[in-house]
Amino acid sequence: MNDASDMLASFKESIPAIVEFLNALCIVSGVYALFSAFYWLIPYNRQSASGSVGNMSLSTPAWKVIAGIMLINVADSMSMILGTMFGSGVDVSNLLAYNSGGSSLPEETKNMIAVIVMFLRMYGLVTYYRGWNTAKNIGNNNSHDDSLKSASIRIIFGAALMNIVQFVNIITATFGYGDVL
What we know:
The longest helix is centred in the first third of the chain and has 47 residues, at 4-50. The chain is mostly helical and 181 residues long. Helix 1 (4-50) packs parallel to helix 4, helix 2 runs antiparallel to helix 4 (107-135) and helix 3 (74-86) crosses helix 5 (147-162). The model has no long low-confidence stretch (mean pLDDT 81). It is 72% helix and 0% strand.
């Protein structure tokens, strides 16, 4: 009979494959953003040669190039942002292996916390991806005025979710409770 611990163990085993798929999705989306930026420059060049650029600006392809580079190099860009937020000892390669240490919790509870932490880190990668996907639309005439704000929030909180253990420990230490995870 399947119980909750079997389901959590099965989900825990499938998370690395899902993360690999998300990394591949980031790379494909980054390549698309780069091609889109260079394709966008063709009509800009034609209109600037005729002297009527109109409402076109170079900020749109610039943001698409930045977002494309950050998405193609998702592990390096995430390590850079995590290093900025949490210090130089944080790297993406060691984040998925959460160890609860020598806590006195039952084994099932430790496994449940490990799965929840892995799921939040996976959701952090999705949020980070959505942030850079929103950032590539900054400066576009069809984008919302708050694209920069929503992209920044998604990138920052995606990085915070990728290192949820340290983020929670920083928040709890701020209020005087010390490290809880």
